Amino acid sequence: xxxIIINGSPKGNSKNSNSRIVCEEFVxxxxxxxxxKCIANSDPEELALDVEEYDTVIFVLPxxxxxxxxxxxxxxxxxxxxxxxxxxxxFIIQAGFIETEQEKYVERYFASLAKQLxxxxxxxVSKGEAAALYMFPNMFKKVLRRFNxxxxxxxxxxxxxxxxxxxxxKPYKLTKSQTLIFQFFCDIGLNNLGWHKVLKKxxxxxxxxxxxxx
Length: 214
Ligand SMILES: Cc1cc2nc3c(=O)[nH]c(=O)nc-3n(C[C@H](O)[C@H](O)[C@H](O)COP(=O)(O)O)c2cc1C
Known about the structure:
Shape: globular
Number of domains: 2
Largest sheet: 5 strands, parallel
Strand content: 5-15%
CATH superfamily of the largest domain: Flavodoxin domain
Oligomer: single chain
Structural class: alpha/beta
Number of strands: 5
Low-confidence stretches: none
Mean pLDDT: 96
CATH architecture of the largest domain: 3-Layer(aba) Sandwich
Bound molecules: flavin mononucleotide
Radius of gyration: 18 Å
Strand order of the largest sheet: 2-1-3-4-5
């Protein structure tokens, strides 16, 4: 079974792409690591043809505005339905927000996409709260180990391990008390510290409340 991993982030192979990190961790403990390709800077037509050479395609992507990045949608529009049975399509989403419930819409789409393209659906693995992965990898050791295990087990079983998928997907939805704690952090401005740092670095802090489309 030949598998290709497709990195769907517009940041491609750059150092600060969390999708790149997840791709690399997924193949790290494989005996024969799968090939990884980036959509960014690729010709979607050529990449769609390359993909046909493989039995399984696993997309690793971030969520941008609750959806897949545009470059990934573009590639998908170039994919042709498989003419043979038994090929498989899988997805690994890593995103900034804590709750993985927001992924449910795109997951539903991925399941029906696989069907439309005559691929078996391997499933979608979702990990929230991952925006700082490239900044503080040491804080994410446990998460990275889970991706190592997910990849190692995938190589042996050709499936996403259900237990690891469940662990990575937590929390699906914050409990009431977690929401209250989070609200408190928002009220005192803690949630904005990192974001404001980025705005200041880009001389955009003073413009943060502007509403240009009004
Ligand atoms: C323009 C933009 C939109 C984003 N929208 C969402 C979103 O809707 N939900 C979410 O959970 N994270 C969102 N994020 C956070 C990214 O999913 C997160 O930072 C991810 O780790 C980026 O992966 P990458 O570095 O591989 O591109 C957004 C980030 C950017 C830059």
